[in-house]
Amino acid sequence: MFVRDKIEDDLRQEEKLVTLEEFWNWYPDGYEGRFELHNGVIVKVQPTGTHERVAGFLASKLSVYIDRFNLPLFIPRQGLIKAMNTDKSAYIPDVMVLDNDSVKNNEPMWKKRSTITKGSTVKLAIEVVSTNWQDDYLMKLGEYEKLGVEEYWIIDYLGLGGRRYIGTPKQATISIYHLVEEEYTLDLFQGQDVIKSPLFPELNLTAEQIFQVGQ
């Protein structure tokens, strides 16, 4: 298809660094794909079917929780988080939980561009780890902390992350980072551990229940 060929040609232009405005204008309408902007470079995100099942499972559980407790939150199908102090990076979490009022009152780019600029609007960002695990544990972790994203989960259902992040021996691990005085605290969950989220304290899910979706 012409659209697909054009996208692949555009992605090969590695020397051309683009701004967020250029990225928005380039982003292909109707194309079934996901793209992020990393320091001016357009990066194609190609999740596996299993990856999507894990993300979908978590989104469905959180949606039920939000409805049950009538929380002023929602989960968009897709949206960008603009990095802090730059117009050359923006990320698409696998799952994102947003504050309703903040989206309406504090996010001028949301209606037209589906883009969040203030970390306080993002109550939770979830990344499901793929082979490029460094993006989740290094780049996005640092950016979300700087922005002030209240909670960040890394779902490493294949145990791909570095040992300094998930321990030895490497195994499937869920890392939950929660913002306290502008810095992330960390709790790790494996096996039959019941995950503990300050934002969703009654979620009642074990790490293994999540990992089984990815098997």
Write a short abstract of this structure.
The protein is an alpha+beta fold and 215 residues long.
3D architecture notes:
The structure is a single chain. The chain has 215 residues and is an alpha+beta fold. The protein has a single domain, classed as tt1808, chain A, CATH 3.90.1570.10. It contains 8 helices and 11 strands. The strands form 3 sheets. It has a 6-stranded mixed sheet. Strands 5-4-7 form a 3-stranded mixed sheet. A hairpin with a 2-residue loop joins β10 (173-180) and β11 (183-189). The longest helix is centred in the first third of the chain and has 20 residues, at 49-68. It is globular and about 45 Å long. The chain starts with a helix and ends with a helix.
List keywords for this structure.
single chain, 215 residues, alpha+beta, tt1808, chain A, 6-stranded mixed β-sheet, disordered N terminus
Gap between N and C termini: 33 Å
Strand order of the largest sheet: 3-6-8-9-10-11
The largest β sheet comes out as:
6 strands, mixed
Mean pLDDT: 90
User: What form results from the Cα inertia axes?
Assistant: globular
The helix-and-strand class reads: alpha+beta
Q: Note the quaternary state here.
A: single chain
Per CATH, the architecture is Alpha-Beta Complex
Number of helices: 8
> Could you tell me the radius of gyration in angstroms?
17 Å
Helix proportion range:
25-40%
Strands, count:
11
Q: What name does the CATH topology carry?
A: tt1808, chain A
The proportion of strand residues reads: 15-25%
- Uncertain runs are 1-6
CATH homologous superfamily grouping:
tt1808, chain A
Count of structural domains: 1
CATH class: Alpha Beta
Q: H/E order of the elements?
A: HHEEHEEEEHHEEHEHEEH
